[in-house]
Automatic annotation (TrEMBL):
Residues 12-331 form the NAD(P)-binding domain. It holds the Pfam family GDP_Man_Dehyd. This is dTDP-glucose 4,6-dehydratase. GO terms for biological process: nucleotide-sugar metabolic process. Belongs to the NAD(P)-dependent epimerase/dehydratase family. dTDP-glucose dehydratase subfamily. GO terms for molecular function: dTDP-glucose 4,6-dehydratase activity. NCBIfam families: dTDP_gluc_dehyt. SUPFAM superfamilies: NAD(P)-binding Rossmann-fold domains. Its EC number is 4.2.1.46. It comes from Afipia carboxidovorans (strain ATCC 49405 / DSM 1227 / KCTC 32145 / OM5). InterPro entries: dTDP_Gluc_deHydtase, NAD(P)-bd_dom, NAD(P)-bd_dom_sf.
Length: 361
């Protein structure tokens, strides 16, 4: 093994070239003194350009799959990290409906492979390094299933009732992470958060898709009646919550992370239109709202998610700083200032996906 996994040792981030992972690495480098190793397979959702302005001496990229146990074991032995923050996943619900296999492979098999490699590494560490080591498993509120409009928000005690192939794969990974703590003592903490938004989000997800389509003069495809409710969490607030969890979270616990911003989808889309009307008015003077088009609903579409973040707020002192209004304005401005970024990620493969998901709606 290389030098000790003490406080100055690096952390490993899996999926650090994706949306939340790249924001987390940015946040880590701005706030923490230690180095980061980004282990990423670079699927369609992984983009190293998201990190290209960060200092190279603080960031190492390893191109690899979390399912590749030889690669993961070699990396752990070579770099001797003090923590792993596990973001890598297939993350888009609509893609899981069209093709669930990749979700089972990465989210279930990949997570269990990563946990096994980590257990093998962690068990060989000296006692003080074992005690300091952490595995943060980043998961979703979708594992809890859906709420009616009247039901209270999800607490950590809510039963798991995943409804999409994506949600089921994440729920399975949460169970595996829990078992590795319970059975082997691996120092795992799981976080379950709501819908993230912010810079560098792949334009298949609601907010960047709507901004991109609006500016391109395309329809804004709202599924069903648009009254499904999501809780919106600014990605930088999420990254702060994960840093708090790593610093002082209790082992074996789960923490729900939410933005206190429940909104129906149609309201989100209308607000994006209004912000664009103010920031980048259409040449014909009409509102972007005229581009809204109601389309066939997502199969099995969960009606409402809501997160009760009381536990992380009271135990770890974390609270979201961004309101949805301030966060969405910043986000719209980021996409307006970074249209070149969006154009570059919209490859031929992206166009194939849009055709597959929206042509028959
Ligand atoms: P993303 O799709 O933007 O990025 C996923 C990253 O993982 C990409 O860089 C991809 O290349 C990498 N990856 C995929 N398969 C891999 C593999 N087998 N090995 C190594 N790397 C691989 O995802 P995101 O939106 O940033 O989500 C990150 C995590 O947060 C996921 O675990 C997701 O389930 C969870 N989450 C996301 C949200 C959200 O709103 N985006 C909300 C709750 C939880
Ligand atoms: O709740 C957390 C989850 O949030 C994460 O675990 C997932 O990784 C992340 O993708 C997200 O899942 P959603 O399905 O909620 O996000 P998405 O952006 O795909 O859709 C948000 C809502 O908007 C959802 O109700 C579906 C709707 N929608 C989405 C798209 C892409 C539309 O109405 N039209 C669309 O074109």
């Amino acid at each position: 093994m290389s030098s000790a996994a003490g406080p100055s040792a690096p952390i490993i981030v899996t999926g650090g070239a994706g949306f939340i992972g790249s924001n987390f690495i940015r946040c880590w480098i701005a706030n923490e003194p230690t180095a980061v190793i980004n282990l990423d397979k670079l699927t369609y959702a992984g983009n190293l350009e998201n990190l290209s302005d960060l200092p190279g001496e603080r960031l190492e990229f390893v191109h690899g799959d979390i399912c590749d146990s030889a690669l993961v074991k070699g990396l752990l032995a070579r770099r001797r990290p003090r923590a792993i923050i596990h973001f890598a996943a297939e993350s888009h619900v609509d893609r899981s409906i069209h093709g669930p296999d990749a979700f089972i492979t990465t989210n279930v098999v990949g997570t269990s492979c990563l946990l096994e490699c980590t257990r093998d590494y962690w068990q060989r560490l000296p006692a003080d390094e074992q005690a300091a080591f952490r595995f943060i498993h980043v998961s979703t509120d979708e594992v809890y299933g859906m709420l009616t409009p009247e039901e209270p928000a999800f607490t950590e005690q809510h039963p798991f009732r995943p409804n999409s192939p994506y949600a089921a794969s994440k729920a399975a990974s949460d169970h595996i992470a829990r078992a590795w703590h319970h059975t082997y003592g691996l120092p795992v903490i799981t976080t379950n958060c709501s819908n993230n938004y912010g810079p560098y989000q792949f334009p298949e997800k609601l907010i960047p898709l709507m901004i991109h389509n609006a500016l391109a003069g395309k329809p804004l495809p709202v599924y069903g009646d648009g009254l499904q409710v999501r809780d919106w969490l600014h990605v930088e607030d999420h990254c702060d919550a994960i840093r708090s969890t790593l610093a002082t979270g209790r082992l074996g616990e789960t923490y729900n992370i939410g933005g206190n911003s429940e909104k129906p989808n149609i309201a989100v889309v209308q607000t994006i239109c209004d912000l664009l009307d103010a920031e980048r008015p259409r040449a014909d003077g009409k509102s972007y709202r005229t581009q809204i088009a109601f389309v066939t609903d997502r199969p099995g579409h969960d009606r409402r998610y809501a997160i009760d973040s009381t536990k992380i707020q009271s135990e770890l002192g974390w609270t979201p700083r961004e309101t949805f209004e301030s966060g969405l304005r910043k986000t719209v401005r980021w996409y307006l200032a970074n249209q070149v970024w969006t154009e570059r990620v919209i490859s031929g493969a992206y166009r194939d996906w849009i055709e597959k998901n929206y042509a028959a709606r």
